[in-house]
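sry for the spam today, last one i promise. C-alpha cells for design, 333 residues
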C-alpha cells in the first residue's frame, strides 16, 4: 500500500515484487532495475508502463518470460492505484489480499502460519479505523506504530529511521546523514520546482525532530562500485542562518562556517592557498579507460586537496566525477 501511494519507493517494490512468488526472480529484478536506471526512472514507473501496454522498445529490454511476469504484475499495480480514491484503506487492502491470495501464502496450516495471518488481520482492523481519514493518514499511522513505541522512555539506544517515518516523533539528539546533492535534495527534483520544495520540507521535518542538539552530516567522498568520488554538500545547508550553527568547517565551495561566538557570523572567503604540489595529468578531450565503466572522455580536471578531480563522460554510464588517485584510470591514445 505504501508502493501504491508512492510508485517511486523502490525499497518497498523490491520487498513485494515476488511475494508471493510470481515468476519475478533476481535476474528479472536486475533487468528491471538496470533499465530503470538507464532511463532515469524508478522501477515502479517502468512497471506501471509495462502494465498499461508499453511500447515495443521498452519490452525489448526484457526476456520474453520476464516481460510477461512484469507486465502481469504491472496490470495489477495499475488497477490497485486506480482504486485509491474509490476505496477505503480496508477495502483496498481486501482487494490486494484477494488478488495475491495472501492468506493461502501465509497460512500453511501450522501454528506459525496462523499467527502470520492473524498479524495481517490486526493490520486490517487498524485500516478499518481510517475509512474517513483515507490512505495517507493510515500509512502515516502505520509508520509510527513501530519498535519505537515499545522502547522504554529512558532506553539508551539509537533509533534508525527515514525522514518520512520521523513525522510525529521527537528525539533529544538527531543525526541527519548523507546531506549531499543528489540524495537530499534527490537528483530527480533538480528540474522540478515543486519536487524541490517537497525535498526542502522533508529536510525541515528532520530538523524539527531534534529537541536539544542536531548534527548535519555529509561526506567529502562517496564510494560507488568500489571507487570513491567527491560529492557536493546539500544546497539546503547554505540556507541555514549562521547564528544557528556550531563548529567550524569548510564546505567544498570554499566557504567557511565559523563557530558561533567567534565574532564572525557571515560566510568568509578562505585564505589564499599556495600553488598545488601536483600537476594535472588529465586534459579535456583525453580518452581514458576505467576498469568498471570502460571507455570515457575527460571533460574537465582540477587539483583539489592534493588530488586531481576529473569529470569524465563514460559511454555506458554517463557523467562521473572521480579522484584520480583512486579511480585507476588508463590514458588511451
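last one done:
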Amino acid at each position: 500500500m505504501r508502493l501504491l501511494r508512492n510508485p517511486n519507493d523502490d525499497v518497498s517494490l523490491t520487498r513485494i515484487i515476488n511475494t508471493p512468488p510470481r515468476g519475478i526472480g533476481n535476474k528479472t529484478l536486475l533487468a528491471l532495475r538496470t533499465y530503470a536506471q538507464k532511463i532515469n526512472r524508478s522501477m515502479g514507473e517502468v512497471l506501471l508502463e509495462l502494465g498499461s501496454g508499453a511500447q515495443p522498445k521498452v519490452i525489448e529490454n526484457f526476456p520474453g518470460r520476464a516481460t510477461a511476469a512484469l507486465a502481469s504484475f504491472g496490470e495489477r499495480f495499475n488497477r490497485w492505484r486506480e482504486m485509491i480514491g474509490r476505496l477505503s484503506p480496508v477495502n483496498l487492502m481486501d482487494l490486494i489480499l484477494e488478488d495475491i491470495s495472501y492468506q493461502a501464502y501465509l497460512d500453511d496450516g501450522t501454528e506459525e502460519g496462523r499467527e502470520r495471518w492473524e498479524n495481517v488481520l490486526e493490520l486490517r482492523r487498524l485500516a478499518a479505523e481510517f475509512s474517513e481519514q483515507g490512505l495517507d493518514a493510515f500509512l502515516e499511522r502505520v509508520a509510527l506504530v513501530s519498535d519505537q513505541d515499545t522502547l522504554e522512555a529512558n532506553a539508551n539506544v539509537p533509533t534508525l529511521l527515514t525522514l518520512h517515518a520521523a513525522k510525529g516523533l521527537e528525539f533529544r539528539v538527531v543525526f541527519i546523514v548523507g546531506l549531499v546533492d543528489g540524495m537530499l535534495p534527490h537528483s530527480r527534483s533538480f528540474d522540478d520546482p515543486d519536487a524541490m520544495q517537497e525535498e526542502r520540507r522533508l529536510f525541515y521535518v528532520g530538523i524539527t525532530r531534534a529537541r536539544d542538539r542536531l548534527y548535519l552530516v555529509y561526506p567529502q567522498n562517496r564510494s560507488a562500485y568500489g571507487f570513491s568520488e567527491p560529492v557536493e554538500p546539500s544546497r539546503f545547508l547554505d540556507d541555514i542562518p549562521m547564528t544557528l550553527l556550531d563548529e567550524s568547517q569548510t564546505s567544498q565551495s570554499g566557504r567557511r562556517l565559523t563557530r558561533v561566538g567567534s565574532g564572525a557570523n557571515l560566510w568568509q572567503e578562505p585564505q589564499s592557498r599556495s600553488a598545488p604540489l601536483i600537476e594535472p595529468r588529465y586534459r579535456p578531450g583525453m580518452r581514458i579507460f576505467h576498469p568498471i565503466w570502460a571507455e570515457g572522455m575527460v571533460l574537465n580536471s582540477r587539483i583539489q586537496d592534493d588530488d586531481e578531480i576529473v569529470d569524465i563522460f563514460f559511454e555506458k554510464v554517463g557523467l562521473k566525477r572521480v579522484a584520480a588517485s583512486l579511480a585507476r584510470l588508463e590514458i588511451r591514445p
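Residues 294 and 314 are 7 Å apart (CA to CA). ok im logging off now
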